[in-house]
């Protein structure tokens, strides 16, 4: 952190935070490749190390078998052999060792020799085969090693020397009840066998290194092909703006990456529709609110001193302000429709609810009101929201009819008890008028915000086109309900609120 002060002042230094270093991100492609290389390297190292261990174990097994075989043959010869010159058993250890060694054929790395005890613990004399051993220092030339083996109380062992390791075994030859005066020794130099195992290990390491290089190249290409759609998704997301939501990700194949691209494209479709609806909503709301504001401003600017004119201006301004207030309240209601607590269902008697709606609707206008039919049952719904929606439909019917025309209100059970089937149906609450009806081209738009049917424009009422949108929001808030427009016999329009699969739907007779 650095300190700065304002020139010309004696104020305390102001601490300025140091620039935070930007951490470089490692791409998913590099991370995948690094993990792949790590796993492959561990696997190759395990294979090479295991192979070397197996080869060295085979060398140990072979050496142990050879030592046991040679010592066993000598022990058998000592017990059963006879001197070829006398035809009798051997009595001289030196003669025994010479005759046995003359008849043996040793491996290149194997030494067979006889050792004779020297006077007063001196170095043992050696009896060896006349052959060269391909090692730096054979045992028959290493006096200290020969003495250590001859004096050892063990019958087998390993001698570690600077000139190379020796694996040995011996069979002591002694007079009856006396100290050993000779010994048969088998020595094996495993250096070359071990070197071959190490050479195989190095070859495997080289092969593994080449394989890792090939894996790096192939993995880099494959990871790039697999992650290409992900990069396209990231690029498309970075280029998205509120003005351009038209970019889409090309989909290839049927794997998880293709599914990701399809999901992202579907999300972009929803975002595009949402942004379009938002822009349209803002434009329409601005238009609907701009009109009453213009009217209010114009009347206030032209208002004179005449009391009658002032009274008329105040009336018109108040009426426009009330209309703006209704538009704002309707917009707030539609905004609340997105909240989970917009609808609060409870057990409701459908007959009682329908009758209450009919009584409240009769005060909306001088029409021939009819209570067409009443559903006899109980359902879980929000009585206040349903009443609000039904009254809105009744108000809509009043605005598009004239005094004396009929408006029918009713409810029924479809696909449930009451003569229409059994359980598992739905509720229908409807308002039917005998007005001009709805043109076919308007059926798809009248439920949208700030949209009104062309055949009804210019008729009575000054709504902002939000009433049917509110009705649809209330219906959909009841677990997938709908608002449908149906043909009315004799002309007019019938708006039906359909609540599908309403729970706890039972007629009065069954509940009794």
Could you give a short description of this structure?
By secondary structure, this protein is of the alpha+beta class. The chain contains 10 helices and 14 strands. Helix 5 (256-302) packs antiparallel against helix 6 (307-336), helix 7 runs parallel beside helix 8 and helix 8 runs antiparallel to helix 9 (467-477).
Number of helices, where a helix is a run of at least 4 consecutive DSSP H or I residues? 10
**Main sheet: which strands, in order across?**
4-3-7-6-5
- Rounded average pLDDT: 80
The CATH architecture of the domain at 346-456 and 463-511 can be named as: 2-Layer Sandwich
Write the CATH homologous superfamily of the domain at 346-456 and 463-511: Histidine kinase-like ATPase, C-terminal domain
Biggest pleated sheet: 5 strands, antiparallel
Distance between the termini: 81 Å
CATH fold-level assignment of the domain at 346-456 and 463-511: Heat Shock Protein 90
Overall number of strands = 14
Q: What is the name of the CATH class of the domain at 346-456 and 463-511?
A: Alpha Beta
- By secondary-structure content and strand pairing, the structural class works out as alpha+beta
Helix percentage: 40-55%
The whole-angstrom Rg is 52 Å
List low-confidence stretches. 6-11, 417-422, 456-462, 502-512
